[in-house]
Every structure is written in structure tokens, then in C-alpha cells.
Amino acid sequence: MLDKTFDPKAAEPRLYAAWEHSGVFAPKADGAAEAYSIVIPPPNVTGSLHIGHALNNTLQDILARYHRMKGKAVLWLPGTDHAGIATQMVVERQLAAAGNVGRREMGREAFVDKVWEWKAESGGTIVQQLRRLGASCDWSRERFTLDEGLNAAVRKVFVQLHREGLIYRDKRLVNWDPHFQTAISDLEVEQREMDGSYWHFAYPLADGVTYEHPVAWDGDGQPTEHETRDYIVVATTRPETMLGDTGVAVHPNDPRYASLVGQSVILPIVGRRIPIVADEYADPTKGSGAVKITPAHDFNDFQVGKRAGLAALNVTDAFGRITAADTPDVPAAYEGMDRFAARKAIVARAEEEGWLKDIEKTRHVIPHGDRSGVVIEPWLTDQWYVDAHTLAQPALKAVEQGDTTFEPKSYEKIYFEWLRNIEPWCISRQLWWGHRIPAWYDEEGNIYVAENEEAAQAAAGGKTLRQDEDVLDTWFSSALWPFSTMGWPDKTEDLNRFYPTSDLVTAADIIFFWVARMMMMGLHFMYEVPFKRVIINGLVRDEKGQKMSKSKGNVIDPLTIIDELGADPLRFTMAILSGTRDIKLSRQRIEGYRNFGTKLWNAARFSQMNEARRVEGFDPAAVDQTINRWIRGELTRAERQVSAAIEAGRFDDAASALYRFVWNVFCDWYLELAKPVFTGADEAAKAETRAMTAWTLDQTLKLMHPVMPFITEELWAQLAADGAPRAEPTLIGAAWPDLPQAFIDPPAEAEIGWLVDLVTEIRALRAEMNLAPSAKPPLTFVAPDDATADRIARHRDLILTLARVSEVGTAEAAPAGAVTIVSGGATAALSLAGIIDLTAERARLEKEIAAFDSDIGHVNKKLGNPNFVARAAPEVVDEQREKLAEAEAGKARLQAALTRLDAVG
Fold this sequence. Notes:
The chain is an alpha/beta fold and 905 residues long. A four-stranded antiparallel β-sheet has the order 6-5-16-18. A four-stranded mixed β-sheet has the order 12-13-11-14.
């Protein structure tokens, strides 16, 4: 006999170990089996399972388990990313905590060895945590973005792209992290809103030039007064960058400065003569309408500088300190000064010398390194770049013509927008941990790109060479993930069988950083798209719709949930909530779906207690009892819904269909309808219903398995001894239910549907009227037709039990003091006179309606206030709208009950 409850702590590790040991996670060897493949978005090797991982990997596992049960050769290929900055930072912190020397003192080779030691000891944490979630990856094929096979693939790709002119070295602006002294990608930049200032500086015009600047305007915005100025005012949030200014820009259509275009200013402090240029980047409506241009320290200024032919002068070094390396006119007093100290010194000097015109307080967005936490410096430096524009064209075309599709389709817009406006991709990083760039330099600065040093030496004619110190952006190796993990550049069996992959499940925020780049690389090197469909999962937020963060204290740790509730409730919650971009998650919801698992367990116990056992040779197509023909059809419909939903990547619809069938159909109705049969005298009906219950439970476990694998596998094993032996010893290796359309029986569906609808209506009426569970009013059918009368006769006992009524009768008219309902074309009357206190019930309903009215008025007042709607957080406004909808629905329900009560008298 089953235990009273399922114990996930004891069962989950045991079940997972058995699955992994059995080899079922590997694709079947049958060459005739259709292939289904999916590569895991590799989590950082430094990572620990968070709620986003739980969502993403649950959805992937549902796909893998479903297609495996459909008989396909399934490859779900796992692995981890070497995570350049994150891993280097972890190891550097460990060295510092242990009192060891820093990486620069250790030297490159010793430090990299230390990182590999850390990886061997601690780098597998998230892989073990994915096992706890139930991820059925083929761990025998696990890859690491820095393993030797992938290293060879990266070198080959780099060399080939360089030969094709698609990788090149260039001096451009990058996001520079002064803490790590490396360029970082846009994804590694965190935009933080902070208090700051606009400092308004007066730059003196050169050569004694003056102009008339408007200072007063009429009602039409026309200037009425002017003053003569020998300076132009610019505003900046970063005064230290003025040392690198090489121009001032004004809008070409701004009449205030039309006479100044082509003139020059003398840059304060350094005395540099710089031109005033016309460029549409300058906004006449912001500040003075004139902007200082520092091409080497601002991305927009860099573009203005290119258009206007302005010099780009670096005035900071790799540590964010002021330097005169590019231009000797920076005063020696600032040399080596930290950028923020220089800011204070420059502002103080501007105030002292009188060219500080104003300080305007503001809140603005400042980029920070997401790992270092320091302010990012746009910095001009030599880096390696990929010609992303050229590689993007086939990737665009592939999605435009449907070779790869997005689910939901709306996410194609993000993909198209980024690729159509793509910039050169900076792929070099000034780190030690990563794929070292396969480029060597001779003493004259000539570059030799080759897959190894021997080939570079041969190309250099034996000259002394030194290898490039930089490593490649982590995303470069990740872009090769779908084919490098299958053995490319070798022509492997896995590549032939599983590339292109079937699906990719990932988050929207890396569509451009990862998805688009995999498309570019896959098409260029494999001549095929890397995946046929991209399924985008949403972002998990807290129950109020706010982003989870440790500082807010609203983080839900999936490992804690698994410890306390088990993996299945978490997985089911992830699936059923996955249909929205912003998933509102609470512990209470997960606990609710634990109860769903408990409901399934209790249904299996009930079946056991009523001797529901598998019968050798049982044929569900041959059942005779109406309830058995009905549940057979309901199961078939559920299988169609679940299959269609999973195939379409609609995991929420699949989970909803499972919930409805298991809880509402199988447990609440079929087993209730079967109870009288189990305890009745009709032995043939009893035997058929027992066999049907056992068969239906087995099929239900199969349908549930991809979403809730642990509890279903445990039930499958525990019920193995109940009746005839199964051909399928494990559920994970079982075949998906194959249910013919003929299993749907319209007459049985109509018959049981009539009964279910009737009882549901009566139960709803009892709830509306606040009828005590012990109260059993009589039920009267009003002038039923012959078909209804036959149904009443067949199901009288079930109606008495399920609807909790004292008797079931018929009459030509409804009795006095009765409330009527209409269900399935029949009118029925529930006699309440003498059972409930009509006056007290009416007062209760009126009081509750008044409470709803108060709530509706309060919320409407909030939503009717434009300031509230404009200023409140979107999730707060949405919450109020949900409250309003709930209150209006509740009021409508109570008003309907009051109307019915009034009809009683």
C-alpha cells in the first residue's frame, strides 16, 4: 500500500540516480528514430541555481522528456561557460582572502593554473543543482566552453574569419572597466540611476570673436533681447573629460550659433584651440544647445568626431587616471590623478577662474560594471573586432524566410532590430582566463594569425614572436555552442544526426548577445541555422511584479524550495506561469501546486484501496459503463491538448490542461462517480471500472511525467505490483499515450456532462446561498422531458449524494420558496424555505455587496487620478486594476444571488 504522503527528500535523489545510472538520458542508438536535440544555455561555471535557471531548465526538461516518450532519439546537451570576468574575479578574491599574492605577482601561467584548480574543486556546483531540479541532460556529453575540443573550434573560427577579412584589429571606443582593466560587453554593463550634476562651462571664443546671444523671448518664442558674448556655454556631467575635448557641436539649424560654425574656442586649462562644428546630434532644446565633443570618451561624441574629422585624444589610462600620453597640453598637475579627483579639481578651478556658469542638479543613468561595480569609462583602445554587419545578413534572412522561428513570434522584432542596426563586435578582453587570441606579433608590430604558434612562426619566417595577451569575449565561444559541442570542426556522428538542433529555450535579454550570434556563426560555418525554433521564456518576478533582488529581500531560492517542498511543485509552477513575459511568483503558489501533487498521490491511494489493478489483456476500447467511456474520451482530449501545447512551446497551456484533467475530471468527478460502482453489487461493472481506473491512472502518470517527473516515477514504481505486469519498467522510458480518436464517445460525454453540469450548478447555488454542508434541501425537476426523466432515473442516487439533497422529484411547477436553476436544458428547483433564514441571508448579501461597492469606489478613485496612473509603478497600477476586476465580479455574483433570493419570497 502507498504511504500516506510522497516524501520528495527521500525519493528524488534515489530516482534521479536510477535514471542517470540507467543511461536513459542518452539518445537511443536506433538510427531510424527521429532526432530531437536541444543545447542548454550554458550557465556560468561560477553560478548557483537561481529562479531563472529553474524556469529555463524546467521548460527544456519538459521538451526532452516529452520527445523521449514520443520515441525520438533525444539529445539534451549540457555544459557550462567559463565566464571570463566572473571566474577570474572569484579566484582573485580567494587569493586575497587567503593572503596570497595577486595574479600580477603570480604571473599568467601560475594564475591560470590556479583557476583550473578552482574549476576542478568548485566549478561543478550548478551542474549538481540542475540534477536536483530533475534535468535529464545527457551528462556523458557535458561540455565546457574552455575544454580542448572547444578551444580548437574557437581557434579555427578566429583564423578563418580573419583570413576572410571578417575579424580585424581597430582602434575604437569600448566599455572600459577600470577595476578589471578590460573591455566589457554591453551585457556586462549595468545602468544605474543616480544623483549627479550638469556643470555649465563657458568656453571662450578664439580670435576675439563675439556674437549676439538671445536672453529674452516673446509669446511666440521669438527673441526680443540679446547680449554680446565672447564665449559659448556647454554642459557636462563629466568635467574631467574636457581635457580631451576636440570640438564643440551645435545644431545646423540653430539660429543662435549659425555665425559661430567654423569658428573656434580656446579650451580652458589646456589652451587647446578646437573648432565649433554643425551636427544634428546637438539638441537645441537641451541646455544651451551647444555640446562639448570628446571623441575618445563618449560613444555619441565618437560618431560626431568621425563625421566632423575631429581628433580623438585619450586623457585617461587603463586605471581611470588622467594621462597626457595622447596630448602634451594636459597640465602636469593632473597627470596620474584619479578621474573623480580630477573632476573636483577642474570644477574648483572653473569656479575660481570664473568660467563655471551654473551647476544644475539632476538624476541620470550612469553605466557601471556589473561585476566590479565601478563606473564604466568609454575608452579609445586597440581591440579585435568581428564584422558583424556582414555576418548578420544571412542570419536576418533565415528568420525572415522562416528557417528559424521565434515563439512567441513578437520577439522576432528584438532580433531584427538589433541585427539591422548592428555595430562591429568587440571580441577582445584584457583578461587571463579565457581563449587566448591566436595572434602573434614580431618586433616590428606585424601580426600573424594562426591556429598555433608553430604555424605563426612558419608564417613569420622564424622571427621572434610574442602572443597577444588578450583573451576572447566569452560570447565568442558561446556563439559556436550548438556545433562546437558536437565535435566540430571534425565531421562527427553527433553533428550529422543532431545539427541543426530542434529548439533553443532562452531568455529575451540575450536574444542579441547570444541567439543572434549563434545564428551568424552557425550559418557561416555549418551553412545551416543552428536551431529551428527559439522559445523565449519570461522573467520571474515576485508576486507584486517587482524584480527579485537580495536588497529587497524578495528572492525565492529554488534550492530552498526543493529542500522544503520538492522539485515537482516548483517545476509545475514554472510551467503553468510560463505564458507571460513577467511571471509573478510567490511561495504560496508553489505550495498550492504541491497540493496538486498530493491530490494525484491520494487518487492513487484511493484507487489502491478500491482494488483498482491492471488486468492482463484489458482493452479500454471495449468498456461498456458510461463513466468509463466518458473518462476514456476525457483522457484522450487531455492528451491531445497536452501534446499540442508542448509541441507549440505553450507550457502554460500544457500544465493547465493537466491540472484540469487530473484535479477536476479524474479526481473530482470520475473517482466520485466510481465510488458507488466500487461499493455496488454489479460485479461486472465493478471489475470493468477497477481495470479502467488502473489503466487511466497509468496513462495519467505518463501525461504528467514531463512536468512532474519525480512523483509520477515514484507512483509508477509503487503501483508496479498492482495487477498485471507492465512492459515498461520505468516511466521515463515509457511510451507517450497513443489514444485513438474513437476513444471519444459523444453519447457518454453528453450523459456525464449533463450530470456534472447539474451538480456543479447546485453546488454553486448552495455556496451563493450560504447553505450549510449538512443542510439537504429537496430538489425538484420542473416538467422534465422524457430524455431528462430517463437521466434523472439513471443518476438519482448520484444526484442525491453529490448534490447533497434530501430527495429528487418532478413536478409541473416549481414549489413555493424554491430557487430555480437551468442546466442542460432542464429546470430544477431547490427548496430553501425553512432551511435558511431569508431575512438574515438577504442582510448578509446586501452587506457584502456594500463592501464590494466601497472597494470599487476606492479603486476607481485611484485609477481615475491621472497622477497616480502616471507616477505609480506599472505593477502597482496593474494590481489595482486586478482588484477592481475581482471586486466587480464578486459584486455581480452576489447580486445574482440576491435576485434569486428575492424570487423565493
